[in-house]
Amino acid sequence: MSGNYTVFETAWGYFALATMDGRLARAVLPCGTRARAVETIHTHLPTAGFEAGLLSDLQAEVVAYFDGRRADFASVPPVALDGLTAFGRRVLTLCMMIRPGFTSTYGDLARWLGRPGAARAVGNALARNPIPLIIPCHRVIATAGGLGGFSAPGGISFKRRLLDHERQFQSR
């Protein structure tokens, strides 16, 4: 399968979005260089072609988010979660309901899915999130208040930075 991608600059670095069959398939969190963002997209979608205006409304929302303006990502097209298990798709779909400025726990998501005790499985599903930020896996934290894990580049320190950035949205 081939797809299309775009790379654009935000206040935090170069962000990439990719689609496959009209569905959002990948997001790459801000990178220091455009080349790194492209390389990351091509790791997952090697035949994807560049399209500058791809998802232009969503691009604008991502830029606004990193500029400190609240963005609800209302222009997100359907997402492609085909390579995930049914449980993983349910976890990521539920995660999309966590609003900017708020968090939930791995255990909460497990309970909401009718699988109490499956907090670790929730964490494993979130680690496979192909569309970080848009599917806000960074908003899921450990029950004891710790940050838990974050598999994206920058790890826990980047997760903390995103959550600190979003605190400003709680009162909006």
CATH superfamily of the largest domain: Winged helix-like DNA-binding domain superfamily/Winged helix DNA-binding domain
Helical percent range?
25-40%
Helical run tally: 6
| Coarse morphology | globular
| Average predicted confidence as pLDDT | 91
CATH topology description of the largest domain: Arc Repressor Mutant, subunit A
The biggest sheet amounts to: 4 strands, mixed
Radius of gyration: 15 Å
Strand percent estimate: 15-25%
CATH architecture of the largest domain: Orthogonal Bundle
Number of domains: 2
In total, the number of strands is 6
Distance between the termini: 41 Å
SSE string, helices as H and strands as E? EEEHEHHEHHEH
At the first level of CATH, the class of the largest domain is Mainly Alpha
Stretches where pLDDT is under 50 for at least 5 consecutive residues are none
How would you write the strand order of the largest sheet? 3-2-1-4
SS-based structural class?
Answer: alpha/beta
Walkthrough of the structure:
The protein is built from six helices and six strands. The chain has helices at about 35-45, 55-65, 85-95, 105-110, 120-125, 155-165, and strands at about 5-10, 15-20, 25-30, 50, 105, 140. The protein is globular. It has two domains: about 5-65; about 85-170, Winged helix-like DNA-binding domain superfamily/Winged helix DNA-binding domain (Arc Repressor Mutant, subunit A, Orthogonal Bundle). With about 170 residues, the chain is of the alpha/beta class. The N and C termini lie far apart (about 40 Å). Helix 4 (about 105-110) packs across helix 5. A four-stranded mixed sheet has the order 3-2-1-4. Helix content is about 35%, strand content about 15%. A hairpin with a 2-residue loop joins strand 2 (about 15-20) and strand 3 (about 25-30).
